[in-house]
Amino acid sequence: MLKVGVAANTKIVRMIATLRELLKKQSQNGVTLSVADDGYVDEGSWIYLIVKPDKPGIRAYEYVERLNDLEAELRTMVGDNNLTVVPAVPD
Fold first, then answer.
1. Rounded CA gap, 3 and 55, in Å?
2. Burial class (CB in 10 A: 0-12, 13-18, 19+), 68
3. C-alpha distances out from residue 79 to 44, 46, 63, 89, 91, Å
4. pLDDT tens digit string along 31-72?
5. Helix, strand, or coil (residue 5)
6. 38 by DSSP, 3-state: which?
7. Domains in the chain: ranges and CATH
8. Within 10 Å of residue 47's Cβ, how many Cβ atoms?
9. CB atoms within 10 A of CB 80
10. Using CA atoms, how far apart are residues 37 and 30, in angstroms rounded to an integer?
């Protein structure tokens, strides 16, 4: 079942909090990345965490590289390989 919404699941709350800590460490070219409380999709066995830049200006390849690095570190920190960090366009 596909679920999108406010993180009520403790595991997802922990993933989002950990990802936010990692995002605080990374800010390049004045562009900060963030994840909202409802910035995830829970597909049961997989969790997709949606990360977006605070403003336009980040090059696509930089965005993808940063997300790949974040995902690898996050997987190690939370001990779960069934998660992925996905890009979103800024509002």
1. 27
2. exposed
3. 17, 13, 24, 28, 31
4. 788 999 889 999 988 999 999 988 777 788 888 888 999 999
5. coil
6. coil
7. 3-87 (3.30.300)
8. 22
9. 14
10. 23
Three-state secondary structure of 44-77: CCCEEEEEEECCCCCCHHHHHHHHHHHHHHHHHH
- Residue 27, pLDDT score: 65
Please, are residues 9 and 42 in contact by the beta-carbon 8 Å criterion?
yes
Asked if the model's pLDDT at residue 2 lies above 50, the reply is no
- In this structure, what DSSP letter does residue 24 have? H
Beta strand 27-28 pairing with 83-87: unpaired
**Residue 70, token pair as written in the block:** 């974040």
Question: How far apart, in whole angstroms, are the C-alpha atoms of residue 30 and residue 54?
Answer: 9
